[in-house]
Amino acid sequence: MTALAPRASTRLRALLARGEPLVAPGCYNALTARLLERAGFEALYMTGYGTSLGLLGMPDAGLATATEMHLNARYIANAVAAPLIADADNGYGNAINALRTVREYAQTGVAGIHLEDQVVPKRCGHVAGREVVPIAEAVGKIRAADSARCAVDPDFVLIARTDARGAHGGSLDEAIRRANAYLDAGADMAFVEGPTSVDELRRIRREVKGPILYNQTGVSPRLGLPELRDLGVAVVILPGLALRATIKAVYDLAVALRTEGPLAEQAFDQGFRGHPLANVHAFAGFDQVREWERDFLPPEALDKYEGTVGYRPTAASPSADQKDDAR
Amino acid sequence: MRPTTRLRQLLAAPGIVVAPGAYDGFSARLVEAAGYQACYMTGAGTAASHLGQPDLGLATLTEMADHARHLAAAISLPLIADADTGYGNALNVVRTVREYERAGVAGLHLEDQVAPKKCGHIAGKQVIPAKEFAEKVRAASEHRTDDDFVIIARTDARAVTGLDDAIERGNRYAEAGADLIFVEAPQSLEEIERVTREVKAPLLANMVAGGRTPAVTVKELDRLGFKLVIFPGVCMAAAIPAIEAALERLRTAGTDWPVGPGGGPVLGPMDIFKKVGYDWWHAIEQRYTEAP
Hints:
Distance between the termini of chain B: 37 Å
Oligomer: heterodimer
Number of strands of chain B: 8
Radius of gyration of chain A: 22 Å
Largest sheet of chain A: 8 strands, parallel, barrel
CATH topology of the largest domain in chain A: TIM Barrel
Order of helices and strands of chain B: HEHEHHEHEHEHEHEHEHHH
CATH superfamily of the largest domain in chain A: Phosphoenolpyruvate-binding domains
Shape of chain A: globular
Number of strands of chain A: 8
Mean pLDDT of chain B: 95
Number of helices of chain A: 14
Distance between the termini of chain A: 19 Å
Order of helices and strands of chain A: HEHEHHEHEHEHEHEHEHHHHH
Mean pLDDT of chain A: 93
Radius of gyration of chain B: 20 Å
CATH architecture of chain B: Alpha-Beta Barrel
Number of domains of chain A: 2
Largest interface: A-B, 16 and 16 residues
Strand content of chain B: 5-15%
CATH architecture of the largest domain in chain A: Alpha-Beta Barrel
CATH topology of chain B: TIM Barrel
């Protein structure tokens, strides 16, 4: 009997324990999560910006509800094996709501979340006009989140984000002060949103007394792995990766279709030929379904494939019987 | 007829409209079966029955709108639903109105509490500035896609800044586009009378047994000029002791069949199904299923 796979939270902790910067590119739905996992990433990030835009078609302005966010996280977490870190915004209210938010997210199978100190409703961390709640209130929310996490899954990773660097009346000093207060309140990792230079990032690394998550997007500098390693970053997220790639690719193809007519899709298909994922049906998992049909349905149930037209899934792995025969 | 139009007609007719509070599809069915003209979805009851949690602003817009959708689909009465604070600022209010409209709700009420809100009849409430809430009301009234959708503005100011401010807020919210005004938790009959005299808009009365407002009958509220009265807790307050008593009987008797004195008649599965529309579905089944 094989041992049950450890929880995603436990696996994320193991990845973090390696002491190397963990690169978690951003997905916004189950498909993009599977693409990032197929490309070889060991951890993924669910963007709130992308969830709001991808699920609702709305900007990241505090319009997505807690229910919508953790439902999206659940779909993603169930589609991949890589541990998922999810955006949980400001916990959708006060400390009481933050407590419920942690419980709901922990039940989805995500490995960890980040909670931020913005007012309700929040806005994207790289869009102007942000405001933060008083530090004591934010500390209370982190304490509530920590208690919920300890009760449901002590390995669940709690990342405290502060928006004080770029908020109304904020500063880097204030952001560092807050990051340390949130770590003292029980957060595992600090996420200072929006440093605008490597020097600022260096200061954050020096003065924040705990592991740091770096959000490599928007107004913040772009760094390679060696620099991130030198800086001692624990996790680097690239939230817009899948979202921006999708936006550009889909829009460009749609414009071509609009201007050149229906055969533009054929031209796209020609370019897709030979691509590792060109067999979309296989990527989607039809072969796996064929395997399950072979292993778990009565043989006559497979007669439906005879004489029908379309993609013929093939069971990739041998059946239990075939394995026995080989032995 | 759309439920919104039906609710408008009821409100335009003389006399008070009574909307007992349902907390789920089952209780909404019972409200309709009892012959009421409108039904109210309680937020406190939604938090309690749907989530098993107190009314502390824990229910999300998604959960509330989903719940309202189920209730609205179960009955043909117009449903007035609690929409708390609108779940954020004016942007969130616009989204709330759209979600509730699509849920098949006939009208909603929005309140001027700080988000996350608290039950109107417990301590510790806070209100946002009247100007800010008036903008939320304006956003709601300007962004309904169905002109008949009823927007009710509730003020919780009585317990925070006093009755004078609550009345001033009521009038301000009416000017901002609210169809009805809901002054939450006046604390005496004199206060209720002042509200009816001084708020220049159609009024909603909220009657909560055990709450801060004294008991006033429907007849009396009608005489005072209220247009709509909701009884949010009526079903849930009846259900809780009945369920507790049934569970206790089960413990002592070891069976849920009624036995001994006071056992009463059996409410079998079909009796229950008939309360939630079995006959209607059965008629459809008969009509569209081939005879053997």
